[in-house]
Input
Amino acid sequence: MFFLLHDKKFSTALIRLFLVLKVILTVNKNLPAQPVLEPADSLHRGRIGLVVGVAGGLTVATYAGLGIAWYGSGLGGAFRWFDDSRQWLQLDKLGHSYGAYHVSRSLMASLRWAGASECSQLLYGGLSGFLFQLPIEFFDGFSPDYGASWADLAFNAAGSGLAAGNHLLWREQRILLRFSAWPTPWAAQAPDLLGRSLPERLLKDYNGQTYWLTASPGRWWGRCRWLSGAVGLGGAGMVGGYGSESWADIRAREYRRYFLSVDIDWLAIPTRRRGLRLLFFALQAVKLPAPALEWNSRSGWRGHAIYF
Output
């Protein structure tokens, strides 16, 4: 791996990244860390109503969009279960965990802002991610192209569990689940499955998606809290064929990709600006484009000057 440091593009990108981080830290070094939004001292009914209203509106908008993107062929027939746990190198399952995690994380933070008790934050916020994605299995169960999946339900629970576990252990999110995506040539081989437009490809083309677990050691040690390490999982060679090709042929084409990178824990950067705190909260969902090391079974170790 150390030969990658002799790669000029990789080393230059790494140096630039740390210079940017140094500037951010220097500008804000004398400011205390603050919550995203100042929490109410007690239960604030107006804020609770706003949280419920916004959550309900976003839920309706999300399922309207999914109805167009995923269920264009319509729903019909008897409800059925389908074991898809071996497909797409489980990256679709990580997508379920990712969605559940960030819904739970967001609602727990919103309930804190509304003055809800710690128990309510953990119970309702923690369950929200799982419940938010539960209708997907209902729709999948009636879809002629899919089927309800126990594996999906398990990964939904894992995502919400990660958010609730962070809250229960530390009252903050120290171990984060993040996402990055980029268009790939694989989508052109199966556009009906992987999407034709750019938004569809970012949603459906698992070849371009990477899911990351990131954590800042400084959250425990008290120094450089903004600097995080990241471990990522992606894949390639996924163009479908499930049910029509042999598993031997599919496994010969598909392979996993493993990544090591750096990231920023945005909420560890102190600022008095409410708009920046909200922006930082949103950025916690996305992996920072940064230098990365990759290992896969096809090409071994390789470096990326910038990977997203």
Summary: The chain has two domains: 1-30+176-308, 38-173. Residues 38-173 form one domain. Residues 8 and 305 are 9 Å apart (CA to CA). The longest helix spans residues 45-69.
